[in-house]
């Protein structure tokens, strides 16, 4: 059975312009203008991102904003060749990592039941803590991309890089582990590849 496409104007709780900015017209930028991204805008992106739900409100994702020429060059050297120029020229780059010791903040993010931290304490729980951190940080990365779009910018998420090398350069001595690099800014010249097809509802969903 082929599903009937919904009347989105009727179904949406947001206006069409907002829906276009967040979903339908939003694209992954591959080139960027030289218009800077302010610290205030970066803070706004985080304030939106942090409101998305995670398991036990654990919020394991960490953001390293890369602005300086020295840091940008260092990061570019850890990127796949096809990603280096984008990393060097984007107005702002975010290195997304997860904190494998996210449970140490239980008293802050889950104050009504801070004692549940004990469920995740100890070396024997390290694998579980990391899996929880990885899963929930990836959820947060989706909120992050939508937050970038919500402030009127475009995001270019990338996975082609030496994660261990990035951690060595930017997260040495911490429990943070990099999983994504995101270029951020206004689009530049010829920023878009052709829009690729999306899976149909009948292919991607099942009703039981």
Model description:
By secondary structure, the protein is α+β, with helices and mostly antiparallel strands. The protein is built from nine helices and four strands. It has a four-stranded antiparallel beta sheet. The longest helix has 25 residues, at 126-150. The protein is globular, with a radius of gyration of 19 Å.
Offer a few descriptive terms:
single chain, 208 residues, alpha+beta, 9 helices, 4 strands, globular
- Number of helical segments? 9
Biggest sheet character: 4 strands, antiparallel
Secondary structure tally: strands: 4
Structural class: alpha+beta
- Determine the strand fraction and express it as a percent band: 5-15%
Name the average pLDDT: 94
Strand order of the largest sheet: 1-2-4-3
**Helix fraction by DSSP (H/I, runs of at least 4):** 25-40%
- Rg over alpha carbons: 19 Å
* Shape estimate: globular
| Series of secondary-structure elements, N-terminal to C-terminal | HHHEHHEHHEHEH
Distance, first to last CA: 15 Å
Low-confidence stretches: none
Helix and strand layout, with pairings?
Elements: H1 8-11, H2 16-24, H3 39-49, E1 61-66, H4 69-76, H5 81-89, E2 92-99, H6 106-109, H7 126-150, E3 154-158, H8 163-170, E4 176-185, H9 201-204
Antiparallel strand pairs: 1-2, 2-4, 3-4
Helix pairs in contact: 3-7, 4-5
């Amino acid at each position: 059975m082929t599903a009937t496409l919904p009347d989105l104007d009727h179904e949406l709780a947001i206006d069409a312009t907002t829906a276009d900015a967040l979903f339908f017209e939003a694209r992954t930028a591959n080139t960027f203008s030289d218009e800077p991204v302010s610290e205030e805008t970066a803070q706004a992106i985080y304030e939106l991102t942090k409101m998305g739900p995670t398991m036990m409100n654990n919020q394991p994702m960490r953001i390293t904003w890369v602005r300086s020429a020295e840091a940008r060059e260092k990061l570019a050297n850890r990127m796949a060749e096809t990603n280096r120029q984008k990393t060097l020229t984007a107005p702002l780059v975010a290195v997304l990592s997860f904190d494998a010791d996210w449970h140490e903040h239980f008293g802050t993010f889950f104050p009504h039941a801070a004692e549940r931290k004990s469920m995740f304490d100890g070396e024997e729980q390290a694998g579980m803590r990391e899996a929880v951190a990885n899963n929930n940080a990836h959820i947060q990365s989706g909120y992050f991309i939508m937050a970038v779009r919500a402030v009127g910018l475009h995001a270019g998420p990338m996975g082609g890089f030496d994660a261990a090398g990035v951690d060595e350069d930017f997260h040495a001595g911490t429990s943070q582990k990099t999983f994504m690099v995101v270029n951020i800014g206004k689009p530049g010249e010829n920023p878009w590849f052709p829009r690729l097809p999306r899976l149909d509802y009948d292919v991607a969903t099942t009703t039981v």
